[in-house]
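User: Here's a chain of 89 residues. Predict its fold as tokens.
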Amino acid sequence: MQLYKHLIDEIKDAIDKDDLKEVQEMYDSIDFNDSQIPWDYVFQKVYLYACLKKKQKFIAWFENIFYQFNQIQQSGIRHTLNYGRFISR
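Assistant: Prediction complete.
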């Protein structure tokens, strides 16, 4: 399994357990210079998963993380925030 798919599964498991601290610890330990991991894709998958599960504390935290992407990445995944807000109502 590719590393980023494993990472997505781990974050989804933490969302299911409602363990934001675990996700934050994973985030702090990640090397974002690893160019083999499509970080915008990972963000999109876990953000939408949190929205589907209606986990508001995760949604708010991920929305703060969004602004740490560069402008090109932000423009590519900005629609994800709007869709996520819609499905999390």
